[in-house]
Amino acid sequence: MPKPFSPKVVTANALLEGDVVYLTAGDEWTRHLHEAELLQDEAQASQRLLDAEMRPLEVVGPYLADARASDAGPRPVHFREEFRAAGPSNYNHGKQEEHA
Amino acid sequence: MYKYNDFDEAFVRERVAQFRAQVQRRIDGALTEDEFKPLRLMNGLYLQLHAYMLRVAVPYGTLNPGQMRQLAMLAERFDRGYGHFTTRQNIQYNWPKLQDVPDMLDALADVEMHAIQTSGNTIRNVTSDHFAGAAADEIEDPRPYAELLRQWSTDHPEFQFLPRKFKIAVTGAPNDRAVVRAHDIGLQIVKNDSGETGFKVIIGGGLGRTPMVGKVIRDFLPKADLLPYVEAIVSVYNLLGRRDNKYKARIKITVHENGLDKITRLVEARFVELRPHFQGADVALLERIAAQFAPPPLPEVGLGAFEQAFDSDPVFRAWVDSNVAEHRVPGHAIVTISLKAHGQTPGDATAEQMRVMADLAEAFGHHELRISHEQNVILPHVARADLYAIHARLRAAGLATANAGLISDIIACPGMDYCALATARSIPVAQQIATRFDALKLEHDIGPLKIKISGCINACGHHHVGHIGILGLDRAGVENYQITLGGTGTEDMVVGDRTGPGFAYDQIVPAIERIIATYLDQREAPEETFLDAYRRLGMAPFKAALYPVEKAHAA
Ligand code: SF4
What we know:
Chain A is an alpha+beta fold. Chain A is built from 3 helices and 5 strands; from the N terminus they run E-E-E-H-E-E-H-H. Chain A starts with 7 loop residues before the first strand and ends with a helix.
């Protein structure tokens, strides 16, 4: 039996700033994982990744990252995505600074 | 130090102009990312986890105050007010924006610096002993040779697409502070039986996935033959090195698979072919370079207020004991400025701190600064009489931590806080170890101890050659830390031994504590260092302390 599909988000780095970004359902790039579109099946995920790859003037290296649903929107699964979503742990830089 | 000539200046400026156009074409869409990526990497620009990262070479770790101030300016204007010094004597900026990078490179060119060949399968920044030109044990200053190699390797048309990256280190002293045995080529200045100086040439060392101690390919190479011989090595590697598997592409594997005998034969044959082509131009160039590295005038001076301060101020005394090294000229000293304040990120300096260090080098240090591969900054030439004043200024800037060579003087790579290749974090582990042992007030009692941490198998944090090495891995989606013991990166380089299964993120600091407790308990005397004790005791007592449950099971 094929492995059941685990939900994904499309993520990349913004071309100009390098910031971690996520694709929303409205085709915008957001800096916040919880605003990303959570992709529930494989066909939809591949399609959205293709959509992202068609936007090389906005982002670099789009890929699908595992995420899980929560009341507050998608949350990271792997710790690497947790750090990408949150920013570095040694300084209040990157995303943390923007939130502050 | 070396001053750019018109050719160097024009070359660096032209590269900046080219890169400026390339960035614009990427933004306009004329270049795809696949086309642009190799171009940005050739200019030191990476894309990391959260942002772009610009890696700037500090050739053989030498900086003047003007350059340090410019690095501070870049940190403030284009980054978050700090820079990160690396184990390859580079500085990395963690937050530049793509459009700003050409301006950053122009600003670097203003002070004769660049980011060329800090990435890609090329010959990288040539590193050297951070005490070069000052150390009491030195035979000769290695930096003129490092500069010669820099000029020769920069944009060398044959060596822009090597099988893999290629790292060269040079030292002029028998006590190896430049880890030359862990480099693709390590050069050590030696004297032969007739008293001439030349090089012991070592090849095929490296860390990473397959750590290897470099092997001696030539016991004595006359100085004049340096470039043709190094070119022979790189050209043999360029043809023979594997391009089918990037994990087997470094010269250490080429040497391992082909055997040192065969490599030696090929290199010596190629050397005979190449040597006539140099026609002495290299030797003439070396002479011009060497003249620019003339040592500063260092008159034998008295100690001034040094002794009284040393006797009366315990904080100053502790700092002198750990952070001040012997200089070749009596009355002078080499100062290690620690970038390892307890709880801070190893190797980071704020723009303000960079300026303080530049000021000190200007006021007291003959305009010289060095970056060490241990991620500290060195003032290589200061009078002992000035140490007290220097210490006071460092203290005010948060730079007077008395821990050089001690447990909190940790090498840590950026790890998963920044690096896109990382499998786990390194920085917070270093911060916690330093803070913990500072709180225990054990640091000075423990004595000389090198902890080195890498956030993945690439080993930028040199964990294999740490007395205690820590390697962060991803084990089934959780951070896990493997420990090695007994490694050392000096002239008697040894790759550390793995203790056994790794430790979770919240267990790694307690594990290190158990290792240290075992050492303190079992050392013969306070003079027996951790490394010596490990060599005498072997792994067993440390294993028992690390894995007590397993032992109970076995009993
Ligand atoms: S060792 Fe790994 S994680 Fe650390 S800087 Fe090197 S590549 Fe990145």
